[in-house]
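Obj.: predict assembly geometry.
Materials: sequence records (below).
Method: joint structure prediction, all chains together.
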Amino acid sequence: MVLGLAATALILVNLYTDWLDPVRERLSSLAAPFYWITGTPSRVGDWAEDQLRTREELLEENSRLKHQVMLLEQQTQLLAAVRAENTQLKELMNSAESVDQRVLVAQVIGVSPDPLEHVLIIDKGRNDGIRDGTAIMDASGLLGQVIEAGLFSSRVLLITDANHALPVQVLRNSLRAVAEGTGDLYRLKLRHLANTSDIREGDLLLSSGLGGRFPAGYPVGEVIAVKRDPGKAFADVEVQPRGLMNRSRFVLAVIGSDEPDPAQSVNAEARD
Amino acid sequence: MEAHNRWFILLTFIVALLLAVMPLPTNWLWFRPSFCALLVIFWITRMPENLGVGFAWLMGLLEDLVTGSVLGAHALSLGVIAYFSLLTYRRTRAFNPGQQLMWVFVLAGINQLLGNWVHGLAGKTVPGLTFLWPALTTALLWPLVTPWLAGMASRLRVR
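Observations (raw structure tokens):
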């Protein structure tokens, strides 16, 4: 009876306040080994796949990668000039926004067992500079954000989770919208977009950076269907996320620029 | 006196937790049996003098931590089914396999029901009665797992 009440109280405290968050963060490292162990079969599979390649396959992959590197290098050369120009312009405008962002590679060690939530567990945590809200992406697009940063592992809420929404912008015409998760790994929905707004199939959506949670300019998804029903106030817009929600083995954590936090620098000034 | 070999109980729970977070294809996630509920019913029916609601409560808390659900959700549900198992262990032992299976389905169903209630509080809705599938798979697992568990327990003299 007492234990039942205690459990109910714990549930309510956990749901409606954030008092228990520090406790959870400490203890979440305890859960990581379980995910690591259950992930072993797939890691063995990956290892075997790497080891049991034929020479021809490796040579082929090597030449493909060399091609890719050449293409990417060419693009970086362009980018360097653009970035220099960008920095200069930002300095002219006295903007504090920094262009450089530090990126950390993390490995996915588990998936939440609850079918109602889209959560990944990654093997990097507070010790590596990850904080609550750190944006997580893969090579093709935005995946989600960190909701619980433990010491050595963190939980990442995917943008397709039914409880997630993020501000986006259409690349073609900078139209702003909010992309909501649907609980389906391959679908997002745009919320409250007027029937008359200029959006069509094939439009690429980027994160807009509004709200300050996600860095601006990362690809989020592509519009795959626009349904305009005159009887409804808003258009039905379906979006396919760019990131590979359930297939990425390695992900990138965008842990901000190397410059210190505004809050920290204020403290430093106060000490001086 | 020789050792009680209680570590075996803990070992079964660690295995159950591993199975509880084992990656499964998305479509199968709805059918994952609740291994911890099965173990709570089994161990309490076997050793009602030594194990109680508190034990189930702690195991539930551990499950909450490992699966990352709301703290206290499994503690509550496992605590409740531990209480019911304590009340009915004599009957459960006397049941024939078919009756046992039905009774485990009811207990695991209560476990799912409470879990679903917490999900509801957290704002996650489940379509229809899909949340009861794990209760069915847990019940179907019961006749497969318990003879082996009981055999191991008596060989190791877990008391």
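Conclusions so far: Chain A touches chain B through 40 residues (CB under 8 Å).
To do: check interface contacts against the pulldown list.
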